Amino acid sequence: MTAPGRRSSTFTRLLRHGFTDPSAAERLLDGAELSGVRDDPVLLEALGATADPDLALHGLVRLLEAQPDPTARRELLDTVIAAKPLRDRLLGVLGASAALADHLARHPGDWHALVMYEPRDLHPGVEEFERGLAEATDPVLLRVAYRRCLLSIAARDVCGTTDLAETAAELADLATATLRAALAIARTAAPGDAALCRLAVIAMGKCGGHELNYVSDVDVIFVGEAADGADEGKALRSATKLASHLMRICSETTVEGSIWPVDANLRPEGRNGPLVRTLASHLAYYQRWAKTWEFQALLKARPVAGDPELGAEYVAAVEPLVWKAAERENFVADVQKMRRRVVENIPVTEVDRELKLGPGGLRDVEFAVQLLQLVHGRADASLRSGTTLDALQALVAGGYVGRADAVQLDDAYRFLRSMEHRIQLFRLRRTHLVPVEAADLRRLGRSLGLRADPVAELTREWKRHTGVVRRLHEKIFYRPLLDAVAQLASGETRLSPEAARERLVALGYADPAAALRHLEALASGVSRKAAIQRTLLPVLLGWFADSADPDAGLLNFRKVSDALGRTPWYLRLLRDEGAAAENLARVLSAGRLAPDLLMRAPEAVALLGDGDAGGLTPRGRPHLEQEILAAVGRAPGAAQAVTAARGVRRRELFRTAAADIVGSYGTEAQPVEADQGALVDRVGAAVSDLTAATLAGTLRAVVRDGWGESLPTRFAVIGMGRFGGHELGYGSDADVLFVHEPRDGVSEREASEAANKVVSEMRRLLQISSSDPPLLIDAGLRPEGKSGPLVRTLNSYEAYYRRWSLVWEAQALLRAEPVAGDEELGRRFVELVDPLRYPAAGLGDDAVRDIRRLKARMESERMPRGADPKLHTKLGPGGLSDVEWTVQLLQMRHGAEVAGLRTTRTRAALAAAGAAGLIPPEEVATLDEAWVLATRVRNAVMLVRGRAGDTFPSEARELGAVGRYLGYGPGHVGDMLDDYRRTGRRARSVVDELFYAG
Fold it and tell me: What is the structure's pLDDT at 229?
C-alpha cells in the first residue's frame, strides 16, 4: 500500500511515459478490462509512444468495453499484447484521433482491419478501396465502410508506414472509390435516369491533384451527355438528378455522420450555373468567359467516376486551354491578386493561425508552383502534374526552380501539410487553424515526433517553415532568372534563355531581352555588390511586376545602381532597411517624373529608408526656407545660390512624389492611403510650400547680388491661382503678382527699375537649363494682363482696381496670398484686395451673368481639338473649372458675411459653404469628390508621363500606370474611365444647379 502523501510507482511510471493525468490513467488500468495487463511494460511503452497516451488508453478501454462478449474482449487484448504491428497501429490511431476512437466504439469489430497487412495492403489504390466499399449499398453503410478504410490509412500514417505524399494520395484514391460507390447507389435508385445519360465526374482541387486531406471538401465538375437516342434536354435533367443525389449521399449527415461535402462551385458560372453541362457547353464557356483563376483550377482536373470515355474527352478538350492561360493579358497579376484577396478575407483574429491560407501557408506554395507550371508548361509537358510536390520536383529537374530553394519549400510544405493532417485527424473536422490550447498543441507536436518539449518545438518549427515559405514563395519565380544570367554555380540545371524570356513576358515585361541584359549587368560576377544584388533582385522583380511598367522599373533600378553601386551605404540601405527597397521599387516603376528627379541626384534614394536620413513626410515651409536661405547665404553669387535652391527643390519634389506614390500604391508596411483628399492636400501643400521657399531664396540671392542687404524698394510676391490656394501640382507654373513700394527717399523711377530688374533676374535664374527642373513664373493674372507692367506699386494696384478692375480680376484675387518678400507689404496688399474679392453687398446680377458667360466661353474656346470633353480634368463636366468657379461664385456672393469662405483653398471654402448651409451636405461631398479625383488624375499624368496634362494618356501602359496610381488593378482602366465620367456627371448636375441656375 502506498504511504499517504507519496505517489505510487505506477503513477511515476505513467508520468515518465507521457501521461498528463496519471491519476485517471491509474483508475483505467485498475479497471476490469485491463486488470490482467495493468503492469505489462509492453503496453505502457506502446501507450507512451502515441501522440496522446491518455487519449489512447481511454480509447482502448472504450473499445474493450464495446466488445460483444468476454471471448472477443480477450481476443483483442491478447492480440494487442502479443502482436506489435497491431499494437502500434491501433494505439497510434487511438492516441491521434478521438473521432476514429468513437468509430471503433460504435463498430468494435473494425479493429480486425488493422491486425495484418498483405503486401498489397501497404499501399492500397483505388481498386483496393473499391473492394473495401463493395458491400455498401446505402449511404449509412457507405459511411461505415469509408471510416473503416480511413482507419487503415490513418494507421499507416501515424506509424510512419506511409509518408505525407503517400497518405494524401491514398486519401484521394479513397475519395475516388467513394464517389464511384455513391454514383452507383444513385444509379440504382434511379435506373431510368441512369439509362438516359452519360455522366462523368471530374475531380478538382486536392482530390484532382491526388493530394487530399483527411477532411476536405471534394471539389468536382460534372459533365453530361445524352445516351444513344436520348433527348439532350431530358438527358441533362437526368444527369443533374444523379449528380445531386451523389452529392447528398456524401454530404448529408446520418446516424453515422457525413463523409465530406462535395463542392461543385468550380463549375462554369459557379453556383449560378447549371450543375451539369455538356462538353460543348463547357468548352464554349471556357473559350469566351472564363477568368484566369478558372484555368488555374483546371490544372488539377482528373476524371474519377462515371463514364470514363467522357471524362477523358473532357480533360483532353480543356487541357490545351489550360496551357494557353499564361498568354492572357495580366495573367501573373490576376493570379497574384487572387492570392492577395484570399489573405485579405481571413479574419484578423485567425490570420496568424491559418495553416492553409495565411501568409507563408500552404496556399503560397501551391500558388507559386501553379504559376510556374502555367508559364512554362506550355512548352514543357513534363511540368503538367496536378500534384504539388511532383510538380515542384519537375520544375527543379527542368531548371525552372533552384534546387536549394525547392528543397526548403518541399520540407516546409510537407511539415505544414502534416500539421494540417494531424489537426484534422483528431476530430475529423475540416479546419486549417492551429489550435491554441496547450493540450492540443502538445498532442500535435508529439504526433509529429517532437517529444522533448512538444509545444515549444512545434511552435518553433511551424514559424520557421512559414518564414521559409514567405521568403521563397515569390522569390522562386524570379531567382532562376538571375541564375540564368549570373552563371555562377555549376552542376545545376539552369533556366534556358527561352524559358527566361517566357517568364519575363508572363510577368508583364514588354522587352524580355533587354530585361535579361539588365539582370546580367546587375547580378553577374563574384563581387559583394553582385551578391547583394542577387539577394535583392528576386524581391524587387516581384514589385516591378506589380506595376504597370516593369521594364521601366528594372531599367531605372539599373541606372540608380550604376550611379550608386560603389557608394557603401546604397545596397546596405536596400538590404537592411525594410521599407527602402519596396519604396524604391514602387517609385522607379510608377512613371517618369520621380525616377527623372532621382537620376539627377541619386543620393536622394536615402530618403526612401526608415532610418535617421530617411523619411517621406514633406517638410514644412519654415524648415524649407531655413535650409534654402542658409544655402543661399553660403553661395558666392546669385547664380550659384539659385542653383543650390533649385537643388533643394528637386530633392523635395522627389520626396513629395515618392510619398505620393507610396501612399497611392501601398506597401507591405504601409497600406494604401484611404483618404484620397488627404493625399491631394499633402501634395498641394508640399509643392506650394516648396515653391514659396524657392522664390524666397531666389529673391534673397538676387537682392544680395545686386544691392547688398537691402533693395531700394519694399518688394513682395503674391501667390495666385493654385499657388495662392496651396494646390500646386507637380507640373504647375507659379502664378504670381509682384508688388513693390519705394523706400523713403527713393524715387519712383529708381524703385521701379530695381523691382523690374529683380523680377527679370529671378525668372532668368529659375529657368536656366540645368539638371534641376525649371520653375516657371507666370504673371499673366496681373492688371492689364500681358500688356501691363510686370511690377506695380501698391498705389498703382489700388488705382487700377478702383477704376478699371473687371469682375474676372476680382474673382482671380480670391486666390491671392503673399508667398515671399516683405511680409508687411504683402499684408497690406491683402487688405487692399479683400473688399474687391469679398464685396460687402455681394455680387450684382450683371456680375453674375458676366462670370457665367466668361466660363461658358472659356469651355468653348479652350477645349483642345479632338479631346474627349468628358475626360478633360480642367474644362470637362465636373472638372476643376466647374467646381472652382462654383465655389468662387459663392465666395464672392457670401464671403463678406461668412468668415469661413474667406480662404484661398477650394476644399476649405467648399466645406465652409456646406457648414453655412449654402450647399446641402451631399452636394458638398459630390463636388469635393470630383475635385479631388480630377486633381489626382492631373498629378498621376505628371508622375507617369513626366509632363503636365489635363487628359488621360492614350498610350496603354501610361493609362495603366495612371490606373494603378488611382487604385485600379491591371485590366481595369475601363472601370477607371467609367468611374471618372460618372463622378463628373454627378458633379456637373450640382454645378448646373448652383452655378448656372442658383
Answer: 87
pTM beyond 0.70, yes or no:
yes
Mean pLDDT of 436-449: 96
Rounded CA gap, 144 and 592, in Å? 67
pLDDT in tens, 105-133: 999 999 998 886 555 567 899 999 999 99
pLDDT at residue number 866: 85
C-alpha cell at 759: 523680377
At 588-629, the pLDDT tens digits run 999 999 999 999 888 899 899 864 445 888 999 999 999 999
Instruction: Evaluate whether 77 touches 71 at the Cβ level (below 8 Å).
Output: no
Determine phi and psi for 221, rounding to 5 degrees. -130, 140
Those residues whose C-beta lies under 8 Å from the C-beta of residue 978, and which sit 6 or more positions away, are: none
Give the pLDDT of residue 437: 95
DSSP assignment of 903-971, as one string?
-S-HHHHHHHHHHTTSS-HHHHHHHHHHHHHHHHHHHHHHHHHSS--SS--SSHHHHHHHHHHTT--TT
Nearest to 550 by CA among 496, 599, 588: 588
The span from the CA of 753 to the CA of 105, in Å, is: 107
- Per-residue confidence (pLDDT) for residue 565, from 0 to 100: 75
Cell of 432: 486549417
826, three cell numbers: 504683402
Q: Which of 759, 762, 765, 758 lies closest to 782 in space, CA to CA?
A: 759
Indicate the pairing of strand 218-226 with strand 262-263: parallel
Residues 957 and 963: their CA atoms lie apart, in Å, by: 10
Residue 203: in which H helix or E strand, if any? strand 197-203
Q: Which of 611, 590, 589, 593 shows the shortest CA–CA distance to 650?
A: 593
* Cβ count near 574 (within 10 Å): 27
Other Cβ atoms less than 10 A from the Cβ of 924: the count is 19
Coil, strand or helix at 105: helix
Tell me the per-residue pLDDT of 569-580, one tens digit each, with 9 for 90 and over.
888 888 877 688
Alpha-carbon separation of residue 183 from 178, 595, 675, 993 (angstroms):
8, 63, 55, 67
